[in-house]
Amino acid sequence: MGHIPQRSLENLKKYAYKGVDKSLISRYVLNPFWTWFVTLWPLSVAPNTITLTGLSIVFINFFTLLYYDALYLTEREGEEGPPHWVYYTWAAGLFAYQSLDAIDGKQARRTGMAGPLGEMFDHGCDALNTTLEVILASRALGLGRSWWTVASQIATLANFYLTTWEEYHTGQLFLGHISGPVEGILMIVAIFSISGYYGPQFWDQKILTFTHLENLTLMSRLPNIPLNESFMVFGAFGLGFNIFYSYLNVLKATRAQKTSSIRPLLLLAPFAGSALLQVAWLSHPRFNNSYILDSAAFVPFLCAWGLQFAHMVGRMILAHVTKGPFPMWDWVWIWSIAGAIDANLPLFGMAPIIQTSTRNTTIFVWFTLFISFAAYARFVTLVINDITNYLGIACFTVRKKDDKGVWHNAQPDKLS
């Protein structure tokens, strides 16, 4: 067919979605809303159209940030950031994204379009949303261009990678009592709303002072860090919790399948290696004041990182639905490897070859972003073409088979 080998395409017909959601909020609060919300959509609307609509709203939020916030477009400091009302639009947009992301599967079952393409498309949009929300949430928390934002990016991407890694080995998507797609998103919606009311400076308050616990003897020995940094610490504990329970689920699956319980741990190496690569590039020694973390290149750097991550997990999800081998290497890292090596040449007594100034560094970061975008767009296009051609379906059109087995675009009054 093209990108996907023929034997892997044949496995698409064996695919069946399996998922577990233990969230109480999802079960008793959100799911009744989602069940009603999906009925508002005509049966002629394809599930992937709903998914893409949600992602488009997130992109509008992101472009709003870039439009209003000069801090992310220039090297100037001390900018006030977007007007407070903008944060409310981010909250509404993210909640809309969550709702649309939740009902696309319900729409797929209503229209008979549930299948591997839907999971690929849904997870691909989620992967892109992950980095965009890191940038938006970091701005709402007042973290700006800092290592805390980098830490947030690593933790958030790690959670997504763990979920995909776990699904590959267990055959099902597992969402615990507290998960990123449910409680995590609602938490960020709350952050946006609070920042809309008080402003991002709200998060600069010290946590013990804010909670009136600083005078208690038991609490006096704890560091009185700002609320935004406390949120990052909380996220680190959440990541550790997810790592532990994800591995327990994988361990249970490997024992049932009588396969190695050690090898799955080795498959965490691609994420660890890619994250260390990006950190190595960011932490390079200063040369002619060229330093990504302090420059306007920081946001395009994060976006390039996010696109490379989306490419990596996209291949993981493809391996899951086609029962293919786990991808250990991704060629899109090459440009980041080149950037990291070039920027760190001063450690070996040599000047950078490419990143000799802030301007040249920014150009190279934007070039990496362009290559990462082109690579991911190519991957998505090829995979969609292969799956739709092989299964005889359409990505954004509801199609049905007639009595002779011929596919036709479905009409709203012909669907049930």
Summarize the structure in short:
With 416 residues, the chain is mostly helical. It contains 14 helices and four strands. Pathway: Phospholipid metabolism; phosphatidylcholine biosynthesis; phosphatidylcholine from phosphocholine: step 2/2.
Descriptive notes:
It is a single chain. With 416 residues, the protein is an all-alpha fold. The protein has one domain (6-414): Four Helix Bundle (Hemerythrin (Met), subunit A), CATH 1.20.120. Helices cover 63% and strands 3% of the residues. It has 14 helices and four strands. The protein has a two-stranded parallel ribbon. It has a two-stranded antiparallel sheet with strand order 3-4. The longest helix is centred in the last third of the chain and has 34 residues, at 358-391. The radius of gyration is 23 Å and the shape is globular. The two termini are 33 Å apart. GO terms for molecular function: diacylglycerol cholinephosphotransferase activity. This is diacylglycerol cholinephosphotransferase.
Kindly list the characteristics that best describe this protein.
single chain, about 425 residues, mainly alpha, Four Helix Bundle (Hemerythrin (Met), subunit A), two-stranded parallel sheet, two-stranded antiparallel ribbon, 4 strands, about 65% helix, globular, diacylglycerol cholinephosphotransferase, transmembrane helix, CHOPT, CDP_ALCOHOL_P_TRANSF_CS, membrane
